[in-house]
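Q: Predict the bound structure with beta-D-glucopyranuronic acid.
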Amino acid sequence: MQTSKRFSVAGCLQVTAIAGALTAMAMPVQAEQWRGWNIQPPGYPNTVALEGFAKEVAEKTEGRVEPKVYNSGVLGNQPDAIEQTRSGALDFANFNMGPMGPIVPATNVLSLPFIFNSVEDMYKVMDGEIGDRFADALAEKNLIALSWFGSGARSLYNTARPVETPEDVQGLKVRVMNNDLYVEMIDNLGGNATPMAYSDVYQALKTGVIDGAENNYPSYESSGHYEIAQYYSLTEHLILPECLCIAKSSWEDLSEEDQQIVRQAAENAAKKQRQLWAEGSKASREKIVSAGVEVNEVTDKAAFQEKMQPIYAEFVKQNPQLESLVTDIQAAQQ
Ligand code: BDP
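A: Predicted complex:
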């Protein structure tokens, strides 16, 4: 009696287990479909790196997470996309730290003109403990920064003349990204700054609403701005890091194992992006030069740097809690 009862309980358990396994086979765990924002077009270094990230995550999580990258800013402009990622409406993105400033004040430190001496120094700083401080500030606003991309150095370009001294900026209408610091930057050089979405710049240049803008070689080239604004002057006033950021809610939905996979894929993507950036930047430069763009060196950068001093002074006055971040970045580059 007893034996048969035990037998039947075990049998029951076995049947239940088999039924469970069959159900699991028939209904696999729902895959997380991740939507990723990318402002750049197909083939751009960042795009290739992001697509590699998506592929690696899908493969290594065996389909538990399926990221898809939406290129060319089709999911909206950058300030909107930042808000959407913060709220979890988008799952991941590659953001520039310029338009991040109004949302995550600490990142404004990175937008102080000439804060970095070189792209190499920027990488060194962001890959170390200082980079972690920025990641912490982003996390407070629901953005998990998993790795840092580069975006070269931004320089001024316009339709009117080569910029060799600050006086050459006088009276030029210059598009800037959405950040008050950039308005001050152009104003201090005697120009008129116009904050505008990236996607509107081409038309604004064409119709003469603006005379110029500022960007790195790959963006200047891939956006087609070089076709209209044919003076590119190597002011190299901003060396901005970019993040590969995940929405906090999407991140927290992951198991620890999958977080590990996603983090590793983001680090691999940054490595790839930096390498592709160096190559792509060179290719873009060659392309614009052969299209007739006049590229000029700016020999007296100190004259531009001097005009930025009041911005630093005002910044630390308004944000005393960020002063140590400014001085630590400067000290790290000595
Ligand atoms: C590019 C950045 C992109 C910015 C764009 C701009 O990679 O994130 O949106 O500049 O100027 O270099 O708006």
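A: Residues 39, 78, 96, 151, 177, 198, 215-216, 219 surround beta-D-glucopyranuronic acid (CB under 6 Å).
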